[in-house]
Design a protein that fits this description.
Layout (H helix, E strand, L loop, with lengths): L1 E7 L11 H11 L4 E7 L12 E4 L4 H23 L4 E4 L1 H5 L3 E3 L5 E3 L6 E4 L8 E9 L2 E9 L2 E4 L7 E5 L9 E2 L1 E3 L2 E4 L10 H16 L11 H19 L3
């Protein structure tokens, strides 16, 4: 078996080491004997979402989002169609925001998104606090840990499923305890870190969805020895809880 992972804008949208998500997917595939090819897709490069198995996009600041937005908009219809057909996606932070309908930045300028998620992100203004720090989220994939750093607040439309519920941290908007969004096998999240190396169940959910989409619903993933990943997860969790207990 083999998988093809399209990594969108890896040189631009790579805030806080989001490239590690591609490395983690490839490593977990290779440990199971699954060939995994990472295909970098930059502005202007060809991409047919029907010919890849997973799409990744990381985070970037406002100027990076403006830089890639026209190219991403051009790809939007094909990406939405592929997501509705089951294509797994992991979109992180700035990538997550642009997979919603729009991002309204601190001065009211609008960066249009592609509408994979029924969500909108608004920046509350230049004097507002950023949502920054450790984050712990309860999800259908178990407890996931990471680090968030975003100025924008994301609001999900009624009926849009979140990725999970914030146990510790700010999440989408620091108001409703939601974090991220899900549509079919597409996941949007604010978790950097990068998120997949220390949350192997989330990585495996993307891999399994991709394999079943390509090879059929009977595919199963053999288990791996995730002792190192569990230690990384638990260390991040301990750090988050310890920081939360410190007086402000």
């Amino acid at each position: 078996m083999e998988l093809r992972v399209a990594h969108l804008y890896p040189e631009v949208m790579n805030l806080y080491g989001d490239r590690g998500n591609a490395i983690a997917l490839r490593a977990r595939c290779q440990r199971r004997g699954i060939a995994c090819t990472i295909l970098p897709v930059n502005v202007g490069d060809p991409l047919d979402p029907a010919e890849v198995d997973i799409v990744l996009v990381g985070g970037g600041q406002d100027r990076e989002q403006r830089r890639i937005a026209p190219d991403l908009l051009r790809r939007g219809p094909a990406l939405r169609e592929a997501v509705d057909a089951g294509l797994p996606v992991l979109a992180v932070c700035g990538g997550y925001q642009l997979f919603g309908h729009r991002y309204v930045d601190h001065d009211g300028s609008v960066i249009p998104g592609i509408g994979v998620f029924d969500a909108e992100t608004r920046h509350p203004g230049p004097v507002a606090d950023r949502c920054i720090g450790d984050i712990v989220v309860e999800t259908p994939f178990g407890e996931i840990v990471g680090f968030e750093n975003h100025g924008g607040r994301t609001y999900l439309a009624p009926g849009q499923e979140p990725l999970g519920t914030v146990r510790l941290g700010r999440g989408n908007n620091a108001e409703d305890r939601t974090e991220g969004a899900r549509r079919e096998n597409a996941i949007g999240t604010y978790l950097h870190g990068s998120v997949l190396p220390k949350n192997p169940a989330l990585a495996d959910a993307l891999i399994l969805a991709a394999l079943r989409r390509r090879y059929g619903p009977s595919v199963e993933l053999p288990p791996l020895d995730d002792a190192a990943e569990r230690r990384a997860h638990d260390a991040a969790l301990r750090t988050a809880l310890a920081r939360a207990r410190r007086p402000a």
